[in-house]
Amino acid sequence: MLSRVVSCLPGLWSSWCALLHRAMDHARAAISNLFGGEPMSYTRFSIARQTDGDNSHVEMKLSADDEEGGEIGRPEHLHATMPPPRRNGKNLCFLIMASVLLLLIGFLIGYLSYRGRMQNVSRCLDGSGKCEMTPTASYLSDDDETEEEEVPGPRVLYWPDLRAMLSDKLSTAQLEANLRQREGKTSFEAGKVEDETTASYIHDQFTSFRLDEVWNDEHYIKLQDKGSSNNQVSTEQNGVEEVLESPNAYVAYSKTGTVVGKPVHVNYGLKDDFEKIRNLGVSMNGTIVIFRAGKITLAEKVANAREEGAVGALMYLDPFEYKYTEKLVPFAHAHLGTGDPFTPGFPSFNHTQFPPVESSGLPRIPVQTISSEAASKLFSKMDGHTCLLEWKSGIMGCKVTVSPTSKMTVKLTVNNVMVDRKILNIFGAIKGFEEPGNNSCLVADSYVVIGAQRDSWGPGAAKAGVGTAILLELARVISDIVKKDGYKPRRSIIFASWSAGEFGAVGATEWLEGYSTSLHAKAFTYINLDAAVLGSNHMKISASPLLYSLLERTMKGVKDPTKDSGSLYNRVGSAWMDKVVSLDLDNAAFPFLAYSGIPVVSFGFCNKDEEYAFLGTTGDTMMNLKKIDKLYALMRAAAEVAGQVALRLTHDHELFLDFDRYSEELLSFQERFLSFDEEVKALGLTLNWLFFARGDFQRAADALRRDIANSDKENRIVRRALNDRMMKVEYDFLSPFLSPKDAPFRHIFFGKGSHTLPSLLENLKQLRDNKDSVDVNTLKEQLALVTWTIKGAANALVGDIWNTDNEF
User: Fold this and answer.
1) Where in the numbering of this chain does the Transferrin receptor-like dimerisation domain appear (predicted)?
2) What is the distance between the alpha carbons of residues 130 and 405, in angstroms, rounded to a whole number?
3) Which CATH superfamily is domain 660-798 in?
């Protein structure tokens, strides 16, 4: 056999050359097709779309030879006619010899590459190199068993194992010990001694957990404190003044001074409530309005009252919803925004000087909270309309206003003072690791943030204590999983303890403002732990649509602590996404989503038909909190949900962000907009461009999903590029046409202002009800801003917009 092979050698070279010549012919033909003037096509997204999302390609020919191409609109690449390859009659043995040589060369290259990799692995594992291997597998479903290359070293932590490990390590006893730090304390007001002491304790705990980094973040802010004397609410009639209440509680950022006006009760202070009062023929100009707590924040209630011409505002806890609170007066703030209102849009760093400026969200009128007992006394002095039956007030004799002949007025005096305070945000980080390269490991620069408010005006057991206790327990457990059990998260986890949350998420917002240029590219999720347990028979959930799928899967895997069997998913039901509530301004997750464009999840246990009565009052004590059935079991369940979400986002190759959900959200808005099509056409406008942009986003999402499905998950560069595209989805829904200083909450779904989709929908409803009340130019601008924001999000999602059908 060997002699036969040797006999073939004389003709080997000529046959080898023939093979190379043939390959060169094919290469020259391909290059000629690409660059030599042969017909070629490409596609790109266009705003001129069908409203149903079809016809996604608009073909552009670079040659006039249409007769050789496919149908217009199909991305077919045309090929030139190839000359037949030259043939020769050389002996077949030359082909055999060429195959043998190629096989030997391939074997040598593979051996050398494998030997090099094993040397790198050895260096990583024995500590002599610069990196450690990442033994973490990646899965998008819990039961996947995709095999990875076996590497000596720590065992691979598959997701079911990691999830079970988290559940086993979480301790109700440790959660109880963490919460006990609130025992016997009366106040943790931001920037004061108890707040700083707690900050120091959290810093020490993070250090003891052996987190990779622990640091403080200082901010110097302006807060409003109670003056030397309590604020006062009284009535005046026939020259006689009677004090109704002079509480210790106050409303931060209220305007100071004294105002007098007739009282008008407006239920929750919603816009609809004000409209109902107007329909009763009651003018609110120059009045002091009264409303009950709930539905919306105090700041929003006050803003609505100011629009109606009120000169002052009072709020109380109605016994119908807040039981056993007749004598309690809540603390609150009246800033319609988040962060320090005296550095709007800017971080309050000590070394930065800004010109004097105030947030447009400051109330500009005096505001005070009162007890329901004081409200009842006030109603007894009013002789006008009784409260509407639909209000379901818990106060007997509830009144709307006084009669036109009544001389009774309300006098409100606010003595608050402005103070400068230093606040501390405390951070601890577990660093993540990408898959290692040839000789070194890449430290991840993307991270999930888990945060909780630390400060409170009163004891704050439920408001801040529960979240802080869960934060500490998650830091302890996850660090233990990493340091002792060998889990190497692909991405980092940051634990954050915020201060000045009571004043409107000030600590969180100042941090976001300080790093606004980079956070959206690095922080891909914020998990909020504030007020995680306020009851036991219901769950309240707020989240970005990007996290719906992950949250649903997580709830299916966490046991319901209030039942013998079943998961949290069984509690909330399959239609839970229809019940997701909007984030309010007081929620620390709100600025992450609406200001920075970072996906968020905020959830908590509560009671379905009644509020936690003591939130934000001096009654928020450990004694009252412990009245919640299975308190510590519920805290553990909340910790497990938050921990699973964080670990899953750091475990998989692919970021668990469901960008397809936004396609559904946009389609839902389109369906609602369609009913106003005729009214819009009557103004000479059209909604089609908005619908086309929605179709573009749908196609871009489909394209990204295909790219992910067809990608190599082990290719670190490709994987990171795809994850980066997913991370930008939320951020790209921030309107780029507005200044973050003037309109900080730019998110078109969840922000505040005329640029949002809900605001556009509201104006379209107003157009139907009263055409003359709508400014056509304003409506045009709204349509344009929303359309181009969605269009820009589609372009960003598809990646390389210059070559969206990148077959080359």
Assistant:
1) 686-797
2) 85
3) Transferrin receptor-like, dimerisation domain (1.20.930.40)
